[in-house]
């Protein structure tokens, strides 16, 4: 291996696996690790569920087995990431300190038996968890094989309503609002006589009804985000004290998470993601695109490259019946997709399927039989390719001139009050992202609070909550020459989830150059959308009836058609604003329209794009000091033959870095085929 | 305004809005009220959720803001109805007296946060509620703007199983049955060893399983009806003590209610209804008819005209995603439909959409933006029309020669034991009512215990429970010359929900002139129905196999057809009984058959009807000392052109009172068009 | 009646009814019993819900009414079976000893009100129940009318999590594993830090999540099976003490039951079943076959003839809306189906529909009206036929050369971890059984632990859990000349629900002559199955990719086809093993394929079969010392005309024992027609 010294360990491009030494007879370990080495495993993650083995009884620590495992990896040149095991408190702890257990919104306790049975507000959990992490960090700070840490596992919103959570929420509210008068006013509790007359009356949303005061519910979500971030900060402090040179990451999963990724990501060195693209033929048309979005979202958490900490290795099955088994090429193609979109290290879950416990059918690279098979071979092939190209790829990262803004506050607020039956904030983001991806236009997906410098186009779907700061930043972006795209349900509320008493899109009306005269919540009903060029499309979800602001250069791009009472009214507009422009989409058009609109913008703004990509084919570019590389992936179930034109035409006449072959005028990729070209 | 003095204030025909002064900065009030006056608002309802503002702390009353609001309305000539705010007990009360909170059948508490968090059995709620109402009534008894009161808000069955509810149910049962022996015998508790050996064993239906003793479950429902009526009586007494000249009403909602409307309506001066006709295009074919039924049901509560206390003003959205926005004409047309069917005052919910709280998207006449728009303009136009026609309409009321009998005891008993998968008592009433409405035949919908004098035709679907008194009254109606229509599942049980040991239709066999030999619970299966004239229809739900009683003049009108084993057996019969007749429908035929049968009856009994009404078009007549008026409403989404024949032919050659125009030989109404003619 | 003395009372072939004297005025009894006698009732079951009448108050027993009822039956020559009433503890008992009540997995209590409100672990229930049974048994031991006992009623899994259940489970686990180290190792609790550090930490599956450790969950099910068996053993001991000559049975119901029938059946003299074949036309194609399976399953519980303790007499309706009424012939045909498959006594539920209680619409032979009708007449006709043929049928039993293995451990384990979305163990058994039944091949359905001697073919679907003993027995069966049929998901786990680390089908690989290279969990996706003869079929659920073991005589019978990556790979194989053969089906083929495969086997193994049976027509043979009888039943809704060939050709030229007629070359049966021939 010829890794340049300048790269930090976590910026290496390489492959790994998740391993659970505690699940296997120790006699099996070396055989496993030796085969890992042969298969190209460079990193393992271990330990994240092993509390009961690290501390079998209160204060009795046993790290002997862990020492032996880590030493073994070290001997075989495999780096180790340790997961802190707070996701699974042991029974002696929950028995001794039941406050460790979350309390569900219906008042029932989340008992041990599954996993994730830990209330982030529990003082016992923090005390015991940090004590163990302190010991771990102290012990492995200097171990040459250990390179970093994963906090807990797959954080998610638990809505724990334990007494401690209630108490902490009261404190949080007190710190935010200072007085009950402020709180009552900002939350609008006067409605339904909900005014609090004493701080003790403030509780989590008891009963768990989703139909409570939306200002209160949004703040309860924010409180939980702060709680998880604070819980993680305690762990991070314990690790950094001993291991200042180790990295710390967390493995996010299953987007959209209600938990604010950006808040939880703040203190991390980089983000990780657990990537399980759906293997069902029914999902074959959408799964490669929602997967692409998940990767872009993960990259956006820290606006830098990331890890895959768990990557699909076989059919998952545990909470749900088993999925289809990944077919040949699937494991390799999706590993390359992750790398193409900014993953550096890709760790596959898991080495071998577990014979015990509730995830027996969450298949690893090797089946229960322990006979190495097709999937391990494919992994080994991929590892070999990754190892070969790593020197080129290290230090490169995806580059984008387009950003989609993502906001967990919007997501949560629009979950609390679902606008119409098919209105879904994250699904809307998916559709914009998919339209870009099908056009071969790379984009970043970033927190809506991030600076926008460097982008030419910013797409900001459904900015339902808005404040002066955000509005001003977006206006400035457009005024300074950017293309800003806004959609229906923008500027509806202030940040306390209270409706604004001004025409929509509220604080962004000037920038958009339109006001919403009235609206019709279409839901699943379909309405015709007529473009000024004579095209007819479908739209649904919502219909803002737009009035261009008088005296402004606002152009109507599409109008409602058909039999609705607002037929002929403006639906989509473009406003020349300062040195830039703002598009406003008052409805949710079908993908064909989105694609044609985004293509028009791409042409006008000079964005690199690739018209005519076949279904399932995705391209990405990673660039850096070592050059730029074009990834071409066929994530579909059919072989595809196609041309890449424009700026990519020349690149694909060069040698394919994986196959070593030069394609002719047409690229031909089998199902799950991958090729990489120097750009 | 030229209102004759003879009319009570609540019999005025006029328009109003619901307003929440406590939701807005006081600075905004006068602007609002002034605009209300300009828009034709004659009445407002206020106060029904404002307990925490009227009594911010235990015993500390603050009516200053309410004084100022009511004074303001008075200054602008707008009458005020005050809602008692017991629907939303304040947090200090639930905190101090948790017995105020209902307990769900699964044992969980209904916490504050939504609304309706009050157990009607709670002594604290009654004590505190009546204390507040006493203060309110005393204070506003003499205020010239205040004309009446609404009790609580939208009563419904809560199935509260609080300890006090259990104790009260025990008492209720003791008062009804006297001894456990009686109770055990009447409820048939011997089944499954359910015999009570001590009064303390009597509880609400713990666990909430719907599969418990049906006699017990029906009595538990009756107990709840009595509880709500008693709860309301406490409020009424407090009001009447101070305000003998004010009216008292309650706003019913969302039929069918499990709560017995007639029981709760007893002590009211008149009934009110909250009317939200569904705006979805998917419901366009049925919504105008189920709406018409709701209005007729409300009129039947007191057998007199009523109010709409909340009328659709915009898309609702809170518990559910937002509905479609009412299209132009919708608000006006449905206001006129309400008046056509006996509403005098129509109060729109609400003035302006709330920027705060959980009902932010339950849209008012004015949007959050506070910019008056299309919907307010339509309301103002309607107000102007109503003001113009009020002198004609005041004192008139819908008149009917047909009655449909409705019974909450049947509804509840048939809910407890659903007969077949598509058997639904209220849906069956809907179908009879819709068939009449499509024929232009007006009808009353009245409590099945009401006297039947004055009707020519009485339709009594599914009189499942029966006693001698009811049977005797129905027999007498037919014997005295009326046309009585009975259906399957009549006379199955006594009033204790116990099956009778005699051939069906039990106590009504003689009157019906048939007995049920056996039956087949068809459910959703479709069976053919062959009329004696050779027509073929479909029927479902149920099939009674009928034996005409020997020696009686019982004519078979339709028989089962097709491949069922009872093909050829009698399904529908007509029995000449005394000076009248009894129809018995042993099955549930499709609407086409119902319409043809009802048309035949209408012809024979000389009922006014209007064959050939287009879909969505409804007619109604209001008559009184000032004359009779024919309302013609197009509640469909398409313009309609049609003739009205028979007794209406001449009327519609006269001047339309709304447009001032005379239609030609054909009436032409746009979508949501309305016209009124002198009859 | 000419019953030979050698038959035990419970081996008589005859008809009965279920009767509840306590539900009726005593004045009605004799009229009822007299009509029963006229209708051919030879047996009644009584008492199983009458605890509150037998012991109205703690320790106060009242058997007077029961004496009078039993005496009355005796006078009319009707035998009596007494049900122990522990299914419905009286209110005084649950009030005094709330530990009698089960606790649901969500922590809520199963209150009285329905039935079955008894925790099998409750010490109070056992104490009070056995005290009452002791009194009953002592009292009726010598009564000439009483012939036997039914324990409790319709045992099922309750998953009670009462404190006593938790304590008993701890003990059970201690007795099984001895040490926590053993238990932790065998259950694999190390996963997710689930290791128990103290016995007190062992609880039932709190929270009730189905996604817990599968080894633990399977043992909790086994614990419950043992609990119910033990609970029943207490009752049986109390009965046998006084009534050594009475039989004891239990009425099983609603297969598949999660409760282990074989475990609970061990201590019984024979099994009984409550048989309610679905009357819906929608189920007409499947219900006769799933009914046939239920009967064969019941016969397999004790591998001998059985009783029907409750047989459909009219539309059921209670938990669910009413079903369709059985059409003419239905009651008779299904009674004969039961007898054809090994029922001796058939007791119809119930004499008359109950006017009281929650099962009012579970119709008896007589309607509430008490007017005897069509259904009673059909019952009486059937009774008369049964009485006439009883001398021939008594002592005969169904004989089979094929066995399907059934296992409650597999059922439970595959319920705990559903393999794919349409993978269902019992449904799979149904499909094999239906294919056999459509071919006219009789089979036994027996516990998978039973000896296999005497069978030519053994079908063992989805033997997911396996141990050496079972594997060895199956291998021996094949090696000794049997035909063994195995399917996908065989040998996956050991008996502790832990996956085995060897190629599948694990311990049966040698016997099957194949190993599973890898698999694809197809779920509902359809894949093509190509036979070596060129046939094309569909398969789903699962796809094992099979490698014939080298050097073995393993023949590939079918391969996967179409576009899957494993097209061309072996799916179905046949292995010559010792003197026999093993078929392995790596997938779940459609029924057509199953039928063609089973027909091929039947031909090769010389099994009697009847190709070309029309849909709904079933044949069965009962044989014994008195000869062999062929039952031909048309359980379909259409009349059928068909030939029976092969070994049945001659029999059906003889006289039909029911009609006394000789059919021509073709048999002709009306809908629900039945005929019986001497073989």
Automatic annotation (TrEMBL), chains A, B, C:
InterPro entries referenced in this protein's UniProt entry, alphabetically: Beta_galactosidase_Trimer, Class_I_gatase-like, GH, Glyco_hydro_42, Glyco_hydro_42_N, Glyco_hydro_b
Keywords, alphabetical: Glycosidase, Hydrolase, Metal-binding, Zinc
Domain spans labelled Glycoside hydrolase family 42 N-terminal: 18-388
Designated name of the protein: Beta-galactosidase
Superkingdom, natural source: Bacteria
Domain Beta-galactosidase trimerisation: 400-607
Annotated family: Belongs to the glycosyl hydrolase 42 family.
Catalytic activity: Hydrolysis of terminal non-reducing beta-D-galactose residues in beta-D-galactosides
């Amino acid at each position: 291996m010829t890794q340049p010294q300048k790269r930090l360990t976590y910026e290496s491009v390489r492959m790994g696996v998740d391993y659970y030494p505690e699940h296997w007879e120790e006699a099996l370990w070396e055989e496993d690790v030796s085969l890992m080495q042969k298969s190209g495993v460079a990193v393992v993650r271990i330990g994240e569920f092993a509390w009961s083995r690290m501390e079998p009884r209160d204060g009795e620590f046993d790290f002997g087995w862990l020492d032996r495992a880590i030493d073994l990896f070290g001997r075989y040149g495999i780096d180790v990431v340790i997961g802190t095991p707070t996701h699974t408190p042991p029974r002696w702890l929950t028995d001794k300190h039941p406050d460790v257990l979350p309390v569900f919104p219906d008042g029932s306790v989340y008992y041990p038996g599954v996993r994730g049975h830990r209330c982030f507000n529990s003082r016992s959990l923090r005390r015991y968890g940090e004590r163990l992490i302190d010991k771990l960090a102290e012990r492995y700070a200097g171990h040459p094989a250990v390179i970093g840490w994963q906090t807990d596992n797959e954080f998610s919103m638990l809505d724990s309503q334990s007494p401690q959570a209630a108490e902490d929420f009261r404190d949080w509210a007190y710190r935010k609002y200072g007085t009950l008068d402020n709180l009552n006013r900002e939350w609008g509790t006067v409605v339904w006589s909900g005014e609090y007359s004493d701080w003790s009356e403030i509780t989590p949303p008891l009963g768990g009804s989703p139909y409570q005061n939306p200002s209160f519910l949004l703040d309860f979500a924010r409180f939980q985000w702060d709680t998880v971030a604070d819980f993680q900060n305690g762990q991070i402090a314990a690790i950094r004290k001993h291991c200042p040179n180790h990295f710390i990451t967390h493995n996010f999963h299953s987007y959209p998470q209600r938990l604010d990724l950006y808040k939880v990501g703040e203190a991390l060195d980089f983000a990780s993601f657990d990537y399980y693209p759906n293997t069902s033929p029914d999902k074959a048309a959408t799964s490669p695109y929602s997967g692409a979005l998940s990767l872009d979202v993960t990259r956006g958490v820290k606006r830098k490259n990331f890890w895959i900490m768990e990557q699909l290795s076989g059919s998952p099955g545990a909470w749900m019946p088993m999925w289809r088994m990944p077919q040949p090429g699937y494991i390799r193609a999706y590993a390359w997709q992750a790398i193409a979109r900014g993953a550096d290290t890709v760790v596959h879950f898991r080495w071998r399927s577990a014979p015990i416990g509730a995830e027996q059918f969450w298949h690893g690279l090797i089946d229960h039989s322990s006979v190495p098979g097709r999937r391990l071979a494919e992994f080994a092939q991929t590892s070999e390719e990754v190892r070969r190209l790593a020197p080129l790829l290290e230090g490169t990262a995806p580059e984008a001139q387009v950003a989609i803004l993502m906001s967990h506050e919007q997501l949560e607020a629009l979950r609390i009050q679902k606008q119409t039956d098919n209105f879904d904030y994250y699904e809307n983001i998916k559709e914009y992202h998919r339209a870009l991806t099908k056009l071969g236009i790379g984009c970043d997906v970033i927190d809506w609070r991030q600076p926008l410098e460097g982008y030419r186009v910013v797409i900001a779907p459904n900015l339902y909550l808005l404040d002066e700061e955000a509005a001003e930043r977006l206006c400035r972006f457009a005024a300074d020459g950017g293309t800003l795209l806004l959609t229906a349900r923008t500027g509806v509320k202030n940040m306390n989830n209270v409706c604004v008493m001004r025409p929509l899109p509220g604080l962004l009306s000037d920038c958009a150059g339109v006001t919403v005269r009235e609206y019709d919540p279409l839901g699943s009903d379909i309405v015709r959308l007529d473009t000024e060029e004579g095209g007819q499309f479908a739209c649904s979800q919502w219909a803002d009836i737009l009035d261009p602001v008088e005296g402004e250069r606002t152009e109507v791009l599409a109008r409602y058609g058909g039999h609705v009472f607002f037929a002929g009214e403006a639906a989509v507009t473009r406003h020349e604003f300062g040195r830039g422009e703002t598009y406003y989409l008052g409805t949710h058009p079908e993908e064909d329209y989105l694609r044609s609109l985004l293509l028009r913008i791409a042409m006008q703004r000079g964005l690199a794009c690739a018209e005519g990509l076949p279904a399932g084919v995705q391209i990405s570019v990673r660039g850096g000091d070592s050059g730029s590389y074009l990834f071409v992936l066929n994530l579909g179930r059919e072989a595809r033959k196609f041309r890449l034109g424009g700026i990519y035409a020349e690149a694909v006449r060069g040698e394919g870095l994986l196959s070593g072959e030069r394609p002719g005028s047409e690229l031909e990729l089998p199902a799950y085929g991958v090729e990489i070209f120097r750009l």
